[in-house]
Amino acid sequence: MTWRSAVSSGPTPAALSLRDYGPSRGSHAHDHFQVLVALQGVLALEVEGRGRRLAAGQGFVVAPGDRHDFEAEAGASRCLVLDTRDAAWTPHAGRAAEGPRAAALAHYLGLCLAQPQPAALALAQAPWLLCEAWTAPPSRRLRGRPIDWAALSAWAAAHWQGPLGVEDLAARACLSPSQFAQRCRDEQGLSPLAWLRALRLAQARHLRAQGLAVAETARRTGYRSPSALTAALRRDGGWRT
Questions:
Q1: pLDDT at 241
Q2: DSSP string spanning the chain?
Q3: Which in 16, 56, 90, 152 has the greatest CB count within 10 A?
């Protein structure tokens, strides 16, 4: 196993290194956290008798005192390794990295360490940045009451004969038109009118597949004429009438 390293100074010193792993050298333990992110190859890792594999971009935090062993699969594995006593890593002990941020940062830090003159500022800040990147940021929470899209779809299907617009859908969902429009784009990936159009076409296809005549299908789904329904179906995907 070979490596080159950089040491950060500050209230909680840490050593960052780029290491190449090969065959197992036996299990061991140490009194600090060891943070690993695989950059190349696959590293087989056993911690306290439990095994896992780290492929490129995946990471894991070994807790102080945990006996562990490493072995590269298929020859060799290169990893970014952080040895630190910083208590900020305590919540991450025994856990894998979440999300892509830690992998992207580790890749950059690995490139820095591989240079003849590593970027001093990046490496000095690396331990804190890596800890911050270990957990994925919380997903954006949607504001307001949840929309029961299935119930709203059923309500719309029962009202095709009358005019239906964004205001009608928003009122049914107990939201303002602008709020409903944003929620529809966020949760369904479509504007309200596009969502309504797709819903109407889906019902029309279902009725036609059951053998219902074009004229009756058009009447039930609110199209102004059979020819309007036929044109809509053809535009949407070459439906043969």
A1: 41
A2: -EEEEEEE-SSS-EEEEEEEE-S----B--SSEEEEEEEEEEEEEEETTEEEEE-TT-EEEEPTT--EEEEEEEEEEEEEEEEE--GGGGGGTT-B--SSHHHHHHHHHHHHHHSSS--HHHHHHHHHHHHHHSSPPPPPPPPSSPP-HHHHHHHHHTTTTS---HHHHHHHTTS-HHHHHHHHHHHHSS-HHHHHHHHHHHHHHHHHHTT--HHHHHHHHT-SSHHHHHHHHHHHH----
A3: 16
pLDDT at 138 over 70: no
**Bridge partner list, 5:** 17
Q: 124 and 179 in one domain?
A: no
Tell me the residue range of the domain where 185 lies.
149-237
- Report helix angle 192-209 to 214-221, nearest 10: 150
pTM of the model: 0.55
Rounded to 5 degrees, what angle do the CA atoms 9, 15, 18 make? 135
Q: Average model confidence (pLDDT) for the chain?
A: 84
Q: Is pLDDT above 50 for 11? A: no
pLDDT of 50 strictly over 60: yes
Enter the tokens of residue 35.
């943070």
Tell me the pLDDT tens digit for each residue of 164-200. Answer: 889 999 999 999 999 999 999 888 888 998 888 888 8
Q: Say yes or no: 121 and 12 in one domain.
A: yes
